Amino acid sequence: MHAASREALERLNASLDQGLSESANTVEIGATNGSELFEVVDTLDTDRSLRVALVDAAAAPEQRVSLIKGLLAGKVSASTEEIVSAAVSQNWSDTRDFRNGLIALGRRALLRSAEAQGQLERVEEELFQLARIVEREPQLEMLLADKAVSADARRDLLAKVLYGKVTSVTEALALQAVGRVQKRPVEDLDALCDEVAALSGREVARVRSAAPLGEQQQSLLADKLEKIYGRKIAVHSEVDSSLLGGAVIRVGDEVIDGSTAGKLRKLRRSLA
């Protein structure tokens, strides 16, 4: 995202947070804002000329706001209309940044709703586990990434996988992501997990271990990683019996391989 767009999004994020914090019903309003913002994006995706008009720097902000208000009247809640109108009044570098800004606002509204319910860490863990499920099922990931299939069909497929197994916020975030995949579905879901953690000022450590990690083990590992990296760490783990023993830890782009299988590979290379 370009500098002007980043500044616009920062202002909108602050405004969204303030509005939700002052609301008497953050849970419901945040969830409504999030889902409606995603619907607005879906509408804009079908009309390029409208997207261009809404970021046209040659037009006065009032003109752009009037245009979007006419489009949204009676179709979304008053609070969502206010958020989108505020977004349209900002200066965006291009239509892509504008679209991505609305998505970011939608995600943030949903996450603030989850936070108000005390479910933020649960959403983070569910997204991590969902990414691992998709990662272990190449055929499922291939179907979710197939751009020859409509966004609705991809969402319907994932909805069947998720039905009754995750929170409504996790489901909404995941369905939006697969509706317009940016990278691989696994990478997009992992990016969502990172986004949730970042909202709490944490970075994700993805751990593959030969045996399940207990809560105390995860807590001790988080403490050690926080001392190494100098920031708060959210540990998410999965079992990988092929490691034979130990664990592989990934924080950002850095990988710490303390597994038995990794040590054996190093030994083989040294003897070759």
Automatic annotation (TrEMBL):
The keyword Ion transport applies. Its main location: membrane. GO terms for cellular component: plasma membrane; proton-transporting ATP synthase complex. InterPro entries: ATP_synth_OSCP/delta_N_sf, ATPase_OSCP/d_CS, ATPase_OSCP/dsu. The keyword Membrane applies. Keywords: ATP synthesis, Cell membrane, CF(1), Hydrogen ion transport, Ion transport, Membrane, Transport. It is a peripheral membrane protein. It is found in: Cell membrane; Membrane. GO terms for molecular function: proton-transporting ATP synthase activity, rotational mechanism. It comes from the Bacteria. Belongs to the ATPase delta chain family. This is ATP synthase subunit delta. It comes from Corynebacterium urogenitale.
